[in-house]
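Dear Dr. H.,

I hope your travels went smoothly. While you were away I took the liberty of generating a structure for the chain from your last submission, since the lab meeting agenda had it listed for discussion. I wanted you to have the full record in hand beforehand rather than looking at slides cold. The sequence, exactly as received, is reproduced here:
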Amino acid sequence: MIGKLDDYLRFNEVALGLREQRQQLLASNIANADTPNYKARDFDFNSALQGALSGSAAGAPGALLKTDAKHFDVGQSGLAGGVQVQFRNTQQGNIDGNTVDMDVERNQFTDNALRYEAGLTLISAQIKNMLAVIQG
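The corresponding predicted structure, in token form, is as follows:
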């Protein structure tokens, strides 16, 4: 029974976890907008979600091996789940080598936050539906 509930909520759980990681990356980009030679980073959400749902992230090349059950799962990029962080392509470079475009970062940050809220709304609706079925 618990396994079926986990399967029912798994997609949204994984999606919210990835949205959280992406939000942290985007916030880091915004915080380092004035740091010389800082390179803006991001990851492809769709491919990361597909990899996480298929389970291929754990066996990714270059992934760290755990020698103890208490070790954290950390991918090559330093993010949990083997998410591959990439540098963002710039339209116009700065003289100090910083590649953060504040307009792009703000738009991506807002878009990701809205999608995170939508995911929370979907999970809330799923739980309400399950409670309605249980209570009859």
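Two observations you may find useful: The CA atoms of residues 19 and 112 lie 7 Å apart. The first strand starts at residue 41 and ends at 42.

With kind regards,
E. W.
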